[in-house]
Structures are given as structure tokens and as C-alpha cells.
Amino acid sequence: MKYIDEYRDPQKTAALLDAIRRAATKPWTIMEICGGQTHSFLRFGLDAMLPSEIRLVHGPGCPVCVTPLEQIDRAIAIASRPEVIFTSFGDMLRVPGSGRDLFGVRARGGDVRVVYSPLEAVALAEANPEKQVVFFAIGFETTAPGNAAAVWQAREKGLRNFSMLVSHVRVPPAVEAILSSPRNQVQAFLAAGHVCTVMGYWEYEPLAAKFHAPIVVTGFEPVDLLRGLLGAVRQLESGRHAVENAYARLVTREGNRTAQETIARVFADCDRAWRGIGVIPHSGWRLRGELGDFDAEKRFDVGRIAPVESPLCIAGEVLQGIKTPKDCPAFAKQCTPQTPLGAPMVSAEGACAAYFRYRT
Amino acid sequence: MCLGIPGKIVDIYDSNALRMGRIDYGGVIKEACLAYVPEAKAGEYVIVHAGFALNVLAPDEAEETLKVFRELDEMT
């Protein structure tokens, strides 16, 4: 397929690996932020072909993984109500809450449905006026344009039976939190190409300057990933710390302005708790006050939520790049994709699921 | 969720006051919202996430990629 095959070309991949080997003379720790990139690295075995100087650590860019347990428990409580059709992206259904998951709600008769696009949830609300349709709006800057459009469409249609449980997160504040941590080991970042497709990369420039960390906007295919890594290694070796764009076929410095305008019309910045990591200031989006009618948290009073995390799961440290899944004593023992203790073992973007699938 | 797939726009139409289109992903055709790529035309490639096209792929980037490999060749 065009725009895929040429970026999986074995000769180009080999040439890039060779260039990285020649460029790397000192040990460097580099984080890919996006869980989709983690999966690509492991799926194509690229991590195993890197020179020993390069240590890759995996970042928190897995939306399902960082959605706080409290929000999952709240989703389960709302989805359990008889008047509700609860809609979500598929990955979310198997993420364990404190007690059960959303599949468990469905097994007990709850109306929980997987949608591919949030517009499907709006259409469901229109077709089922006697029901309350709730969409679980999770994700990074990549899902925000669609989710914002869905709220706007529901408003235009005057729908009173559509609402969103919003748990949006943003990448730049997470990069800042990782670099500010006293336990940080990351020296350079591969920025998530599709997040930057929407938002551009200007927000990373002050971070690269403040923390002296190169940040390279990177795509998802093997050639893209290695180009991103090569850029990061060359910068580290020469003592530079700029933001570099290695995904120019989709990303510009300013990003997609049309999408940004709709996001700004619907969402406002807020502090957000990241599962396993804690609250990161200004790291989330919530619905703007004037769209409060579409806020599922306001519409449904589910009482006090008291989340209980698994005592075995080390997802928080894995998501910050401090540990890898193989450092976890429960990995592939008590915790497997069939019996996940934490979200990174569930998600198609979770580091634990990637290690389980490609390294066991 | 952030992976997104490149696909080719087959056709463009309005539905529920939104610009929509059918996208061909190597033979599999699905609908996507094109509201965020107002300049996109049929035949162009877009990257799609959760039912929304986030941008049009820039064809001149093929050139950019080649440039990098020419540079790598010169080093060897």
C-alpha cells in the first residue's frame, strides 16, 4: 500500500540501522512516547537490532493505560444504569476497573457498545430518544478532534440524551513531568507523529530548550522510527537539543488549525490524573463550562467512587520509562492479556501487551 | 488509537452537515469525516483516526525521504 510499503523497505531499514550504529559512540536513553510506536519497534524487532549504546524506554502514550481507575469505575457505574447505552472505543472494554470491566457490565445485561467513530454515538442518541447515550471520550490529541466534533454535532442537533465522560490527556505536559522527575533517565524523545499532525510541534520547542533534550517528531513505520532515532542520536552526540521533524509528510510546525479551532471551541485545559503516575498540571482537556449539558459526570450522580488498584501492578513505573514490563514480577504470570492486572497489558498500545505478544 | 492508517479518498459528500468521504485502505472501504481536511480532494491520501481524517499526506515528502538516503549514501 502507498505510504506504507516504501516505509517498510528492508534496504532502507538496514541503511538507517547502520547509520545509527556509526553515529552512536556513547550510551543514550531515548523514549518513544507513543504506545503505537512501542508496538511497531517490537513488532518489527527493531529494538533488538539497535546498537548496545541505545537504550529505548517506553512512554505513557497509551490512552487506555493512563485513563484513571476512578474514571473507569465511574464509566462502569454509568454503564450499569438501565436507561443508558454506553459507547466506547473497543480497547476500553477490557480494562479492569476496581471490581469488573465494561465487558462485565455487558455480561450482566448492560447496553455497552463499541463504536469506531464518536459520530456513531451521536447517531445512536438520535435513533434512541428514550435512552441516554454516553460516549467515553478518552485519548490524546489524536482523538480530541473527533470527540469535539461529536459534541458540536450533538449541540447543533439539540440532542438532550447525549453526553460524554471525558478523560482527555495531552502529551507536552507529560513530557515536562517526565523530564522534571528526579528519577528521570530519558535524554531524548521521539514525539508522537499523529499527535503532532493535529497540534504541530511548537509546544515542544520550549521543553527541548529548558531540559536540553532533543525531541524528534517521528512516524510509525520502521523507516520512520529509525529516522527519528537517528536524528535523536546525532543531536545527542553533537550536544544539540532542538525539535526536529522526521515526519514531514504529515506534520507541520503549526499542525492542523481547523482541528485545533474545534478542539478549543469544545474543550478547555484542566489538571488531570494519569493512572499510575498521578496528577499532572494542565495535562487534560475537559468540556468547556457552556457545554456542561453534555458532561456525563454532571448528568449522572454515581455517588462516591473509591478506586482500588492491584497491589502487584507496576504500570506507573512502566509508563514513566523507569521500568520495562520484564521488570514486573507479575508479567506473564499473574498478569496476561487474558487476565490483565493493569491497563498496559490490555491495550493494543500498552507496553506490557507488546512485550507479551512479541517477547514471550 | 494513535496508529491511524493512510487511505485514499474515493469520493466526498455531505452528511449531517459534515464533510464526509469514503476512504480506500488497500481495498477495504470505510467512511471517514473530512471536516478537518477541507482542502482534500478525491484521489489524495489522508491519515484517519477513529473515523476522522487528521491531515492530507504531502506527496513531496517522498522526495524528502529520498534526500535522507542520498545523504546516508554519501557518508558510506
Strand order of the largest sheet of chain B: 3-2-1-4-5
Second-tier CATH architecture of chain B: Roll
At CATH level 2, the architecture of the largest domain in chain A is 3-Layer(aba) Sandwich
CATH class of the largest domain in chain A: Alpha Beta
**Biggest sheet descriptor of chain B:** 5 strands, antiparallel
Instruction: Report the C-alpha radius of gyration of chain A, rounded.
Output: 21 Å
> How helix-rich are the residues of chain A, as a percent range?
25-40%
Mean pLDDT of chain A, as a whole number?
95
| Annotated CATH topology of the largest domain in chain A | Rossmann fold
Structural class of chain B: alpha+beta
Head-to-tail CA distance between termini of chain A: 30 Å
Percent range for β-strand residues of chain B = over 45%
Strand order of the largest sheet of chain A: 4-3-5-6-11-10
How many domains make up the coordinates of chain A? Answer: 3
Main beta sheet of chain A: 6 strands, mixed
Shape of chain B: elongated
Order of helices and strands of chain B: EEEEEH
* CATH H-level superfamily of the largest domain in chain A: HypD, alpha/beta domain 2
Find the structural class of chain A using helix and strand composition.
alpha/beta
By DSSP, the count of extended strands of chain A is 11
